Amino acid sequence: MVRVRIEYNRTDCIGAWACVSLGPNDFAMNYDESKADLIEGQNPKPGLQVKELEVDEERLQQIKFAAQSCPPQVIKITNIETGEVLVNWEKPHK
Ligand code: SF4
């Protein structure tokens, strides 16, 4: 098991749904706003959603695939224990 942090720059989401398709445990569609929502994510500031969770290898791969599939690359995945950035975002939340 590994603890990871998911950071999602919702402001720059273009509603491509790739993350929802590949990571349905963590991303859900918000049809009203045409953006994804990070399931059970915190909202530390407007347009940023964050959550930390402990995952097994299978779930970790699912989360990484979801983040890597995002066309504008607005999802960052970090291993909390080591600090290693597993998937970096192209567009960090400002
Ligand atoms: S894949 Fe990226 S752009 Fe598409 S809905 Fe998910 S976060 Fe938004």
Cofactors, ions, other ligands: iron/sulfur cluster
Distinct helical segment count: 2
Helix-strand topology string: EHEEEEHEE
The CATH class, by name, is: Alpha Beta
Ends distance: 31 Å
Count up the domains.
Answer: 1
How would you summarize what this structure contains?
The chain is α+β, with helices and mostly antiparallel strands and 94 residues long. The chain has helices at 18-22, 57-69; strands spanning 2-9, 27-30, 35-38, 42-45, 48-55, 75-79, 85-87.
What does this structure look like?
- It holds the Pfam family Fer4_15.
- This is Ferredoxin.
- With 94 residues, this protein is of the alpha+beta class.
- It has a single domain (2-87), classed as Alpha-Beta Plaits.
- The protein is 19% helix and 38% strand.
- It is built from two helices and seven strands, in the order E-H-E-E-E-E-H-E-E.
- The strands form two sheets. It has a five-stranded antiparallel β-sheet with strand order 4-5-1-6-7. Strands 2-3 form a two-stranded antiparallel sheet.
- The radius of gyration is 12 Å and the shape is globular.
- The chain starts with a strand and ends in a 7-residue tail after the last strand.
- 23% of the residues are buried.
- The mean pLDDT is 97.
- Iron/sulfur cluster is lined by residues 13-19, 27, 35-36, 69-72, 74-75.
Which SSEs are present, and which pair or pack?
Elements (H helix, E strand, L loop, with lengths): L1 E8 L8 H5 L4 E4 L4 E4 L3 E4 L2 E8 L1 H13 L5 E5 L5 E3 L7
Antiparallel strand pairs: 1-5, 1-6, 2-3, 4-5, 6-7
The structure holds iron/sulfur cluster.
The site of iron/sulfur cluster has 16 residues, from α1 and β3.
